[in-house]
Structures are given as structure tokens and as C-alpha cells.
Amino acid sequence: MRILTRLGGPVRHLFFAALALLMAFPFYWMVTSALKTNDEIWRSPPTLWPEVPLWGNFAAAWNEAPFARYMGNSIFVATSIVILQIINSGMMAYALTHMKFRLKGLFAGVILFGYMVPATAVYLPGYLVLSELHLLNSYAGLILSNCVSIFAIFLIRQAFLQVSHELVEAGEVDGASHMRILWTVLVPVTRSSFAVLALITFIDQYNNYFWPMLITKNPDLQLVSAGLRSFFVEGGAYGLQWPLIMAASAFTIAPLLLVFLLAQKTIMQSVNMTAGSSKG
Amino acid sequence: MTRSKVISGLKPVLFTLPAMVPFVLFWLAPLLYVLYLSFTEWDFMSPEKTFVGLQNYADLFSNPAFYKSLKVTVLFCAGSVLPIILLGLGLALLMNRKLKGSAIYQVLLFSPWVTPTVAVSIVWSWIYEPEVGLANTVLDVLGLERIGWLQDPKWALAGVLLVTIWKSVGWAMIFYLVALRNVPSDLLEAGDLDGASAVQKFFRITLPLISPTTLFLFVVQLIQALQAYDQINVLTQGGPSGSTRTLLYLYYQSAFESFQIGEASSVAVVLVILCMLLSVFSFGVSKRTTHYQ
């Protein structure tokens, strides 16, 4: 490793170029496999680029299962969750950082405790709670059960801690309500943390699979990961129609890669903030 | 108390309710509920839950399948967390010195992290296809023996781990890059003046200064590894012959496939306790060894 550093620029470029290609290769393989005929895809050794690219495979896969619906569902659910998380983590973080009340220590402690509990471990009782509330098989259940995130509260709390308390006091002197101070003073100052929160939450929720699959059995309500997975397993697709499966995977992944390319800076920045919020 | 005092006393409560209500409903209550369920016998269907005390735990701790999946869990954690941290650190060190165009490399290395695990796992299951899959073709080209990547109990866990590492290594690298940039250069220059070698500088200065990042990645990746589900579900479903069945996967199979709620709940409780012990342990370690600036 040190030898590589010593050899300097060109060698490191070669190394990283090769590595980056290697890492991105599964995506390339997905797209080129999607363009092949069923005959060609089963040929050995495999062809690096399809003889005749069948762009129609994408349309065929798109029509084979209700992917437009799945993606719409995912975008709707993810967006709703983002909005709710912004509201409740903003308010919670405000109370924890700029208000005085007796239960503060208890609330902060309970939330810290929640940080240590793996969410997936409580899916089974969570499922039973949702069924008691008659919220199974509904977006209300899916959205409400995801609307609070401990990570979000930590992230926003950390951002609010860095805002000087004088700003808040100045607002109080002016007679502004807490709500007003929160949304017109604090949130604009810390908007980059909220941007990070929105992006990370959107990506997480769009990618979410396990919990939505458990609680929404109705195919019309399925999110894109679960929809893709059922396309993969059912309909004789398992191993028989690999080009179509690859095409479907491609358009499931594409929106996220696009979001990522457009918002790379914010996402990379999130790293800084995530690490910061973990220090408490 | 005057009316206005009551109202101003209520305000913090109103501000915390939107987060606390769902938190209690979907985190705290389930946590207590799963603890209760672990002391009962129930099959999901029958109206009654029979209280059985510690029976489920006694059964669990005498069940060889439990120990097998405990072993798989430990292997999965070690096999994903250590490579992700070490490779992430290695790559970040290489990239840390000025390198033109490194932003492009960063984007490419980071991209797997933003994509849905289910979708990329499906792509990988095609790469792992035993006859014409890319993975075995590469082994052919290298003159090595073909592997039953997901079909052979000896290799299946490695196959799942490879996808897991592929997905997270770029993410860890970015964390380390940020941390390395925050290492004050005057400290390293002071090291130079004292005649420290690159290795000494790395172990004496850089490594201690980035230890909070290491700790953070360690805890986050460990908890992620304990919760891994999507890639196992798509690639192997816990098989072949239990070689990729982690504790979490065992929990879901006993809950939603064999409907033994009590037994499943006891697995969940063990998992939660494991996570809490690990978190408390690493917070303890962090207090003693990491350096915050």
C-alpha cells in the first residue's frame, strides 16, 4: 500500500480506475444482460456487449408487472415519511435543545436507549401492534410506523445545538411563538441538515423492503423492492427470463442513481453530519 | 397555577408528542410486547396465549439450530464489519493524498450504497448463477475451480458477505476520507520534525485521531450486520442447510413460517440484549480510548 503511494499519481490512478470499474461492473452487467436475448444470456463464455441490443426488453419488463404503480407507491410513501420526519424531529429537537421541562432528561434517555435497539428485532410485535390498530395493509400503517427516526432526531438536535441560543432568545423577546422561532429562525439556519435528512430518509424508505413487505400484503400497495422481488420469484421468472429481471432491476435502481448523481454533494456531506451526530 | 403557566408548561409536551407517540407505539411498546411474548406459547391463530415462563429460553438454549445460527451471526458480523472497516480505511489512505479526478472514483465506489439491497442482490444472484454466471466465468479465466456460490454450504455465506462488503465499502471510505482531512497537518509536521517514519506517524498520530470514526463505523456496521435480512432473503433464504441463517433470519422463520411466536420472541429478546451489550460496551471503550478533538 505504501509502495503504491510512493509510486505516485499514475499508478494510483490505474489502481482506482480499475477498482472503480470493478465496483461499478455489476451495474454494467445488469444493463447489458437486460439487452440480451434469452439464448445469448445463457451462452458461455458470456458476451461483454449484446450482439443485437434489445431495448424492447425494458418495455416488456415494465409491462409484465405494474412497475409504474410500485414506483409511484414507493415515491409517495417515502415522500410522506420524509415530510413527517422533518416535522416531528424538528419539534422534538427544538424541545430538547431550546426548551426547559421536567421530563427532558427522561425523553432524551429513552431516545438514546432506542438507538441501541435494532428496529428489525421488534418487527414481529410491531406487526401485532399495527394489527391491533387495524392499520395492517394500509399506507397509514406503513407511514405512521416509519414516521419517527431516532437518527433524524439526533441529526437535527446536533444542528440545533450549534445555533446560538441568543438567536432563539431574540425571537422570544420579539414575542414570537416557539413554532415561529423553530420554522422561521432555526430551520432556515440549519437547512443543510434538513436537506441531508430528507435525502437519506428518502433513499432509505425507497429501498425499504422487509417491513413494508410484512405489513402490506395487498399487491396494489406493494413498494418497489417487494414488487421486484415478487417479479423475480413468481410468474415463472425465476431463472427463466433473466433479461427481463435485469431490466426490471435496472429501472428500480435507476431513479436512485439519478438522485445520487444530482445530489452527490449533499449525500457526501451527510457523512460529515452523521459522524457528527453520533458524537452526541 | 395560572392558566398561562399551565399552557407554557404544556408547550414542551406538545412539541415532543409528534415524535414520542409513534416512538412509544412502534418502538417501546413492541419492545415490551416481545419480552412478554417470549414468556408465552402462541401460534398466531388461537385466541389464547399460554404463559410458559422461561420455557422458550430453556428450549432455545438447548436447541442446536440456535447455536448454529449464533455461529453464522458471529461469522457474518466479523466477515462483513472487519473487511468494510479495513478496506474503507485503506482506500481512504490511498485517496487522501491529492489525486485529480478522485471525485469520480468516490462516486463510483459509493454508488452501491444508495441502491436498493433487493435489486442489487437480484443482480448478484445472476452473477452467481452456477452455469454461465459471471463469477464462475471469472474463476474459469483465472484457471480456478468453479464454486457453487450460493448452492454450496461451504461458500454461500462468503457469497452473501461479498455482496454486503461491496455495498458498504465505499461508504466507509467516505467516512474515513472526511476524518483524515480533519487530522491537523501541523501535528503530522511535528512528527516529521521528530524524525518519525510514515508508519510511526500513522500509528501514533493518524490512527488515534480518527478513532471516533472507527468506533462509529464499527458500531453502525455491527448493528447493520445483526439486522441483515434483504440480501439473505434474496440470495439464499438462510440456506443451503442453514449456512446463511443468522439469528435474525431464524427469528423470522420461526415467527412467519412456522408461527411459533413465543420461541421467535425469545430469539428477538436475545438479539436485542446482544445489541445493547455491544453498544454499551463500545461506548465504554470509546470513553477510554478514543480521542475527540
TrEMBL record, chain A:
Protein's cellular compartments: Cell membrane
GO BP of this protein: transmembrane transport
Name of the protein in question: ABC transporter permease
GO CC annotations on file: plasma membrane
SUPFAM superfamilies: MetI-like
Main localization (coarse): membrane
Native source species: Paenibacillus graminis
PROSITE patterns reported in the protein's UniProt record: ABC_TM1
InterPro entries per the UniProt record, alphabetical: MetI-like (IPR000515), MetI-like_sf (IPR035906)
Keywords, in A-Z order: Cell membrane, Membrane, Transmembrane, Transmembrane helix, Transport
Bilayer topology: Multi-pass membrane protein
Domain ABC transmembrane type-1 span(s) in chain numbering: 71-263
Tree of life domain: Bacteria
Transmembrane intervals: 12-31, 75-94, 106-127, 139-160, 181-203, 240-263
